[in-house]
Amino acid sequence: MSVQEKSAAGKGAIAGAAGGDTIAAVSSGRGGAVAVIRLSGPAAGDVVLALAGRVPEPRRAVLARLRHPDSGEPLDQGLVLWFPAPRSATGEDMAELQIHGGRAVVAAVLGAVLAVPGTRPAQAGEFTRRAFLNGRMDLTEAEGLADLIGAETQAQRRLAFSHAFGHLGQRVEDWRHRLVRAMALVEAGIDFADEDDVPAEARALARPEVEALQRELAQALGDRRGAMVREGALIAIAGLPNAGKSSLINALAARDVAIVSDEPGTTRDLLEVSLDLDGHKVMLVDTAGLREAEGKVEAEGIRRARARIAEADLVLWVHDVAAGPAPDEAPEMEAPAELWLVGNKLDRGAGGESVAGRWAGRSFAVSARSGEGLDVLTRALGGFVTDRTAGGEHPALIRERHRASAAEASAHLGAALAGWEELDDALLAEELRLAARALGRMTGAIGVDDLLDVVFREFCIGK
Ligand SMILES: Nc1nc2c(ncn2[C@@H]2O[C@H](COP(=O)(O)OP(=O)(O)OP(=O)(O)O)[C@@H](O)[C@H]2O)c(=O)[nH]1
């Protein structure tokens, strides 16, 4: 079979879901010794034939000299891989050229690839978009892949990995299938309305399943672990002016990121630093000293600080041990999720005294200046994030998009359950259908054209 015939056969199998162009891009990062050029689309085989002189056996790396298709000039020697449709990452004919990573080599080979008719440069995320359109992955897997590529910490990598390889998608599809079964039962009431005993019985059978789904959705919505791993646990550093908040952040971040000065009220705005703490992403937020503001700017800083403290997973209340005994509790604060006391400036005062009351077991003594006590605090922070993100199954919902879909589904299930006895069959079935639709949008099984640009623009070119 010629390459063209092979390509045509492959294209038939995938019903041309992503259009007829063949896309090409450098998929490896800059500056490596080896560069990878990927191709996807019906002309991928033509390109390999034109540059390498032959198309290798599927999925076998073959060393080949690559020439310009027009001039015949040798450009480089490298490995060529051929993945005919539909067993390829995108579901289309694909090829990969592994060549030397030099700038001129890459430019020459990519130029030669794009000289073959029917090829064009790929847009960001276009390979993955084609994989989605050809049914090789669902939308949550595509998002997981974006997160896997962007993962900065090991916890993010682990979460993204399970997400990229179907964990979330399977759970959502399971919910949706159960919901569709419940809906079929309710609809049986519509179809057999003239048979007296069917409607009531079918409804009664569907109800426990809908209740169970509602419970599972509520539990998934209440689980913040996914967001905490992906976006980082938010740790706010609060305290009176001059307590050493900025110095503590600098010491924890081991770099000078916050302005440190001995003039109270220096931190007028919020400064956020992202850290990798024991493999977990943590966002440290330096908040303006909470006190009666002297100026408008400082007042605004304090307002923002309070808002951020209210959303924090943990607040470290920094206290200057040289300024007197630790307060019994943090002054002027709405109760945050969790509050620890950090007695700072240990180098200047006693300070290490045990603290009772609400701080017991959650107080630390450090010196941001000398570094004393910081190792204990850092370990405790790592332990806090590990505790909050570990355990049980992988979180079901990771992004805001997932939460919004799940919340929408849950609202429809709530409406269905609230009206279970009164609603007529058609209205009840409609609530269940809308809930199933909201879940379907999460995996991309249903009506997501409007979402694709948003999801795939996160990717880099070549992925
Ligand atoms: N001796 C000593 N001085 C410290 C320590 N930490 C901070 N300081 C000093 O305390 C002063 C205030 O420190 P900052 O880090 O700016 O305090 P802040 O809480 O961020 O202050 P505001 O921005 O005004 O709210 C500076 O002069 C620091 O050098 C410490 O551990 N020991």
Automatic annotation (TrEMBL):
Asked whether the keyword Magnesium is assigned, the reply is yes
- Which biological process terms from the Gene Ontology are attached to this UniProt entry? tRNA methylation; tRNA wobble uridine modification
CDD domains documented for this protein: trmE, TrmE_N
**Binding residues for (6S)-5-formyl-5,6,7,8-tetrahydrofolate:** 38, 96, 136, 463
Q: Where in the cell is it found?
A: Cytoplasm
Q: Name one GO molecular function term.
A: metal ion binding
Relate the assembly described in the record.
Homodimer. Heterotetramer of two MnmE and two MnmG subunits.
Described purpose of this protein according to its UniProt entry: Exhibits a very high intrinsic GTPase hydrolysis rate. Involved in the addition of a carboxymethylaminomethyl (cmnm) group at the wobble position (U34) of certain tRNAs, forming tRNA-cmnm(5)s(2)U34.
Name the record gives this protein: tRNA modification GTPase MnmE
Which species expresses this protein natively?
A: Ancylobacter dichloromethanicus
